């Protein structure tokens, strides 16, 4: 839905019906209150209810400002140890950590709202076609919430019906496989079948679509390493010709080009509606007025421009961006030293263009080991300073067409091996060509059928090794170069590292690079490619030494352990 008719507040009627003794109820009835007996009747009722399910997507831990806690996990970003995000970068969070509890709760609010719609619509007297459309959207959203739960916590407690008794809350924690089989895949298959041919326009922009259901289903199969099944889903999206890459990479990260040709699943925010409400405020109770804005911008923007620069580009990502080599023949690169992907994503001291309307470096910053700040999801391109109430209207894209192309390339390389190399390169190069950087095919043509292994630090190890275009080398490129550069800060990275089982290797490798920089600071200080000054930021000093497989997922929150006897804990 667009910003003219964004998500409505949760209606007071959406309250859990617990079984209690009749004597415990008040006998007086408020004649002005909406009740379940009169609410769940009309198409308009179900549209309002469905909008509250969409509204849960806006919660800070689902698509908003609190994603910063997860962005500092892994290899693309770090933070300073005085910020509350630091335990996530160090992998020192616990079951009592606030974000661990908040994300769980926010996702289950979304699931509960979806379950309400699905429960009451079953017997509603509305047209079957309209009913199927509402159910398809609700089941997609429930599947999305469960996908996030499963791959954040390593599983979930499955609730697909409204609880009636206390015992209905007491359910076991199920594995990723169980959640996927019991809920996610059936919900997405239903959504895919019932949203086919539906096109949303006007005030309905932002509703989920056939393309979103098919893309997420492909992603589910990809995470399950069901390569051929994943490839089938992604190829359907590609062959549908519904989606295309935007002409400009940056079109995906401003408030001006929303629901564009590349957008497959996008969450809407507005800094105009509900003025004054902090961007982290959510409508999780009937009395709460939620914000329609996001506060993610504050974690990205530099301190002197109204942010906290909580999320900082890692040296690894910064160097990947530096060597994202531009094609000088592309007009998009006229006047640029670095790639369009760097321009839209991070800002080093020697970067291109302006930052919040000023030449880069005009205000203090880029010191104390902070080599680059994050631009993506901040308002650097049109404001002089961020909103003081932590409000931004930049939408969050959970699925972009570029991601589908890369996931398809990954799926066919794993499924077909070297037989898929040429096809995979063609899809990777679509993305590189849009970004105005040298394509893999150009490298092959100019370097004796080899291309650079760009994931190793030139600063630490010297010139890139040149490698042959094999399936293994291209998969390494997708994992360690293309996805990091293209999709940084979009909520995918930690889950990617976990599913590939390369967390330990990445943390150990980057800690070794970090130590080299610490030992050579006097030589590299203020020098390209990273222009680091004063110190080396120790992003991996703790995590590289402490990581175990148990860190792959958040623990079950302490709040759930206290109320759910079904966990058996």
UniProtKB/TrEMBL annotation:
Q: Which InterPro entries match?
A: SusD-like_N (IPR033985), SusD_RagB_dom (IPR012944), TPR-like_helical_dom_sf (IPR011990)
Does Signal show up as a keyword for this record?
yes
Q: Name one GO cellular component term.
A: cell outer membrane
| Keywords, comma-separated and alphabetical | Cell outer membrane, Membrane, Signal
The keyword Transmembrane helix appears for this protein: no
List where in the cell it is found.
Cell outer membrane
Q: Where is the signal peptide?
A: 1-22
Q: Which residues form the RagB/SusD domain?
A: 371-567
Top-level taxon = Bacteria
- Domain (SusD-like N-terminal): residue spans on this chain: 45-222
As for family, the record states: Belongs to the SusD family.
Instruction: From the Swiss-Prot or TrEMBL record, give the protein name.
Output: Starch-binding associating with outer membrane
The opening ranks of the lineage are: Bacteria, Pseudomonadati, Bacteroidota, Cytophagia, Cytophagales
